[in-house]
Amino acid sequence: MTARDSRTDDRSTDDRSTDGDAAGSGAAGEPTTARRLRLPLALLSVLALLLAVAAVVLGLQVRSAHATTQAREDAVAAAEQQAVNVTSLSAQDIDAALARVADGGTGDFKAEYDQQAAKLKEAVTSQQVVATSSVVDSAVVRAGDDDALVLVVIDGSVTNKAQPTAQPRRYRMQLELARVGDRWLTSSLSILS
């Protein structure tokens, strides 16, 4: 064998070994094939991990948005109910009406209302007042996790001893609410017009 033949044989062996690696056959091809499979598997693992993280983050955002929306809805419902409670009084059930308003209040509003309840009861019973109301509209001015400001428009009617024919009334109210436990309670109420 000459030097040239020896070089040709070496190249032939190298070519066979490279061809074997590409085909993944033989003992020499197995480590290379495994290496080639490791990279796509690693990339797929990283991609799956990123997708899982993205799903968790998106799920938390959806849950937070739902909680915020639910808190807003609860605050509006509480404000509307309190506005109706304040404007719906009757001499026949004044104690229950006063209790509903007090139960929906907190802080300064509740303290002031409790202080005025006896005078209000006297006025309603002596004048035989019957006031009914319903919500026309409401809107959230601001809402946070623990407080909210809600505007409520109420239509109602009032009769009393001096005016037995129902007189229409429209009230525009601004209610500040505070979350106390799992309830939204009125901390301030203002009649706007």
Brief overview:
The chain has 193 residues and is an alpha+beta fold. It is built from 4 helices and 5 strands, in the order ααβααββββ. The protein has helices spanning 3-23, 26-87, 94-103, 107-126; strands spanning 89-90, 130-143, 147-159, 167-180, 183-191.
Record keyword descriptors for this entry.
5 strands, Nuclear Transport Factor 2, Chain: A, single chain, 193 residues, five-stranded antiparallel β-sheet, 2 domains, 4 helices
CATH topology of the largest domain: Nuclear Transport Factor 2, Chain: A
Q: Which strand order do you get reading across the main beta sheet?
A: 1-2-3-4-5
- The strand count comes to 5
| Shape by Cα distribution | rod-shaped
Distance between the termini: 114 Å
Percent of residues in helices comes to 55-70%
Described by strand count, sense and barrel closure, the largest sheet is: 5 strands, antiparallel
Number of domains: 2
Specify the structural class: alpha+beta
Q: Assign the CATH architecture of the largest domain.
A: Roll
Overall mean confidence score, pLDDT: 84
Query: What is the succession of H and E elements?
Result: HHEHHEEEE
CATH top level class name of the largest domain: Alpha Beta
Give the radius of gyration: 38 Å
Number of helices: 4
Strand content: 25-35%
Question: What report would you give on this structure?
Answer:
A five-stranded antiparallel beta sheet has the order 1-2-3-4-5, sandwiched between helices. Strand 2 and strand 3 (147-159) form a beta hairpin. It is rod-shaped. With 193 residues, it is α+β, with helices and mostly antiparallel strands. The chain is built from four helices and five strands, in the order H-H-E-H-H-E-E-E-E. It has helices spanning 3-23, 26-87, 94-103, 107-126, and strands spanning 89-90, 130-143, 147-159, 167-180, 183-191. It has two domains: 3-51, no CATH class; 71-191, Roll (Nuclear Transport Factor 2, Chain: A), CATH 3.10.450.540.
